[in-house]
Amino acid sequence: MTGHRGQQRAERRGQQRAERRGQRRQEPNRRVTDGLAVRNVSHGFDDTDVIEDVSLAVERGETVAIIGPSGTGKTTLLRLLSCFHRPDAGTVETDGADVWALSERDRLDVRRRIGMVFQEANLFETTVRRNVSYGQHVRRSWRDRLAQWFSRLRGGDASEAVAESLDLVGLADAGSRPVGSLSGGEAQRVSFARAIAYDPEFLLLDEPTSDLDPRNTAVIEDAIDTARTRGLGVAVATHDMNQAERVADRVAVLLGGRLIEVGPAERVFTNPEDPRARKFIEGELVY
């Protein structure tokens, strides 16, 4: 049964990818009202500027790849988008509202709508199922948490969302396994499942496949594609050009803390406008 569902999903993904290539967005920097964005943000640490005057939007239902050499600020940009850091200048916006002008309660509500996956899986020493269900516990109101706790007492330990998330990353039968038994690739897939199990609106991924083999990389990339087709806005920081070209609708090239090019993936990779972006994409050292 699982194999049949997987085949159906693969067929749908193939059709959706073909449709997506014909619908590449042509206005990469337009203002959006239904997405997550940074506007003219700057941020640094210990008097060192890391991000300078950067503007970037992630709409629901698209994948944006942020590419650039190591140390150029990709992780910091994701942390700004996730509302983890307050920018030194500029604004972080969701649906047109300045996140850092909201009350602490409303800002927490925004953060609960954003999932993030880091390079390291950072799983808890318990079962796969409990790891994936963790976000459902901590990102809900106390009333909802109590209702879920009583449901678990009655035997409802594995929610449908947890099961679907594990199935998405090819681990449908791994719920009862201890995380210590997982390979590195499996652990990262569990981390991805945990990030989407509570149904976020945006998903931010920081080099999610940097240490994975081709098989696990393919599973994560397929899951990214599925998240996007479900309507999530996805941002992926990566130095893997091939991966960015495979998964992204738009590509943002970050160099020295500044965005030097943003545009449809096909154009950026075949005909970049900025000569520095062209050199980076062609494999030259530009830093």
Automatic annotation (TrEMBL):
Here the segments flagged for biased composition (Basic and acidic residues) are: 8-33
The Gene Ontology biological process terms listed for this entry are: phosphate ion transmembrane transport
Q: Can you tell me which residues the record assigns to a coiled coil?
A: none
The Swiss-Prot or TrEMBL record annotates one GO molecular function as: phosphate transmembrane transporter activity
Can you quote a single GO CC term?
Answer: membrane
Q: Quick one: where's region Disordered?
A: 1-35
Report the Pfam families cross-referenced here. Answer: ABC_tran (PF00005)
Cross-referenced Gene3D superfamilies: P-loop containing nucleotide triphosphate hydrolases
Cross-referenced PROSITE patterns: ABC_TRANSPORTER_1, ABC_TRANSPORTER_2
Which stretches make up the ABC transporter domain?
36-281
Give UniProt keywords alphabetically: ATP-binding, Cell membrane, Membrane, Nucleotide-binding, Transport
Q: SUPFAM superfamilies attached here?
A: P-loop containing nucleoside triphosphate hydrolases
Q: What name appears for this protein in its UniProt entry?
A: Tungstate transport system ATP-binding protein
Q: Which organism is it from?
A: Halorubrum alkaliphilum
